[in-house]
Specification:
The protein is an all-alpha fold. The protein has one domain (2-480): Amino acid/polyamine transporter I (Up-down Bundle), CATH 1.20.1740. It is built from 22 helices and no strands.
Length: 507
């Protein structure tokens, strides 16, 4: 059938596994430990839990509902929830995530490269992590080649469809990832001296809870780590069963993602403080950023651990599994949206793969370009989250809550409605902070669109994308196939109401 609606996840467990695999990415393993340690340990974890409840879970429910009700990808779902004039919002979301996909494929390639090196015995005592990284990143054949490997594998998985591709692969990837992290975390926390790292992670610095920056960091981590606002859950929900439990599934996905972050934090921080060769090594590593921490400092630490011959390959295998499983979800997003325009799955998967490879090459050749794309489209996810909340508000928040409760064992109360309506406020605060950070950190260049980390470069690239999707709005609205909501709203349909219409309150 056109659009591939005949495909379906084989079970409730299958969609949960796929969605958790989507949410659990490299950020859980390299960013979560670093930010948790920097921003108060247990205090940060408290703030993360709050952000999960008021941002991630409500947004994941919104996405799940939009995908299930419309049975269409992001473009069609926004058309049917907000009306044809706002179809551009779904296209904006889809292109933001596709923008991330292009450079994320490069990062997944890095993870594969390090796994190959570790499996071949390349991570040994005395290794110079910085030199190893510089040699790799300065070799275009390797960076582009491993980028291509990540793209080819993801294309193959999506090409094979929901049950034969995504479900089959992710049912192996997620248990393997969790098992590896459990083994490595257990080994890390049993090392002499690891308790200092665990203290960094779990003992709250209570005064930090009064810091606005702590809360901003927590909301930022949750917004990017759980996949809330990415549009990925919306696409996975297209293939869900009719009576899927929206509320419980969304909660499982969000909290599982953070639990993986806890595991990775115990692994990274326990290892850092137990095996650090000098007193300030751990703090220096945590200050080195995501790339420096994972591909330079952790490499050197793993090489000195007893059993490095197996621990190093396991760590980078876990990192590769996390990266590729998230990448597969992004490929599926692009593929499903193309299928809604009448392209068959196999051709759509190949087209997405070609685009990911070609548009990812600049990031494979230049870390500066990759950093710029991460800055622009990473912050752009906040806009996608805002658009999702606005779509549900246009549809009717109470109407949406009622429909979620129809199929959910765990009934959501009015707290959910309040949280959805507050998301625009959260957006203003978090987005405003990112702009403020850009201005403060780069006072002379924040306006310059040619600078890597500037407000100017964000506004320019978002502006170009917005102009394109607005100009193509009518094309998107009319060319995307009809879904169940479209047909019900067609003139003459019995009991129909236009998309976005709030039913009368009969309570």
């Amino acid at each position: 059938m056109e659009g591939g609606r005949t495909e379906e996840w084989g079970s409730r467990l299958a969609i949960i596994v796929a969605a958790v695999s989507m949410a659990v990415g490299t950020g859980n393993i390299w960013r979560f430990p670093r930010v948790a340690a920097e921003w108060g340990g247990g205090a940060f974890l408290i703030a993360v839990t709050v952000a999960l409840v008021v941002w991630a879970v409500p947004l994941l429910m919104c996405e799940f509902l939009m995908g299930m009700r419309s049975r269409l990808g992001n473009v069609g779902a926004f058309r049917d929830f907000m009306g044809p004039r706002n179809t551009w919002a779904g296209a904006f979301m889809a292109f933001v995530t596709v923008g991330i996909m292009c450079y994320y494929a490069v990062v997944a390639g890095w993870c594969i490269r390090y796994f190959v090196a570790a499996a071949a015995g390349g991570v040994q005592p005395g290794i110079d992590g910085q030199a190893f990284w510089d040699d790799f990143i300065g070799n275009p054949v390797q960076t582009v080649g491993f980028h291509a490997a990540a793209v080819l594998f993801s294309t193959w998985v999506v090409f094979r469809g929901i049950e034969g591709g995504l479900e089959r692969v992710l049912k192996v990837f997620l248990p393997a990832l969790l098992a590896i992290l459990l083994i490595l975390a257990f080994r890390a926390v049993t090392l002499p001296g690891a308790e200092e790292g665990l203290r960094y992670l779990f003992v709250p610095e209570w005064e930090r809870l009064w810091s606005g920056r702590l809360w901003l960091e927590a909301f930022t981590q949750v917004a990017w780590s759980t996949g809330a606002g990415w549009g990925l859950m919306m696409v996975y929900a297209v293939y869900a069963r009719e009576e899927e439990d929206v509320a419980v599934n969304s909660g499982i996905i969000a909290f599982s993602d953070v639990l993986v972050g806890f595991l990775a934090s115990a692994l990274i921080l326990g290892t850092l403080f137990a095996v650090a060769p000098t007193a300030g090594f751990a703090e220096e590593a945590l200050a080195a950023g995501n790339v420096g921490l994972t591909f330079i400092y952790v490499v050197e630490l793993l090489a000195t651990m007893p059993g490095a011959w197996i621990l190093a390959p396991l760590f980078f295998l876990a990192l590769a599994l996390a990266g590729v499983s998230s990448l597969i979800a992004m490929f599926e997003l692009g593929t499903t949206n193309l299928m809604n325009f009448g392209v068959d799955r196999r051709r759509a998967a190949v087209l997405v793969g070609i685009a990911a490879f070609l548009f990812g090459i600049p990031s494979a050749l230049s870390i500066t370009f990759l950093d710029n794309q991460d800055w622009v489209w990473g912050v752009g996810l906040l806009i996608s989250g805002l658009l999702t909340a606005l779509a549900v508000m246009k549809y009717g928040v109470e109407r949406a809550r009622s429909e979620i409760n129809e199929t959910s064992d765990l009934k959501v109360g009015r707290w959910w409605s309040v949280c959805v309506r507050l998301i625009p406020v959260f957006f203003v605060v978090v987005f405003g902070w990112w702009v403020y950070q850009s201005v403060v950190d780069h006072p002379d260049t924040w306006w310059n669109p040619l600078e890597t980390f500037s407000t100017g470069t964000m506004l320019l690239q978002w502006g170009i994308l917005l102009a394109i999707v607005l100009a193509l709005n009518n094309f998107f609205a009319t060319r995307v196939r009809e879904g169940p909501m479209t047909r019900r709203a067609a003139p003459g349909a019995q009991g129909s109401s236009p998309p976005g219409a709030e039913p009368p309150d009969t309570r």
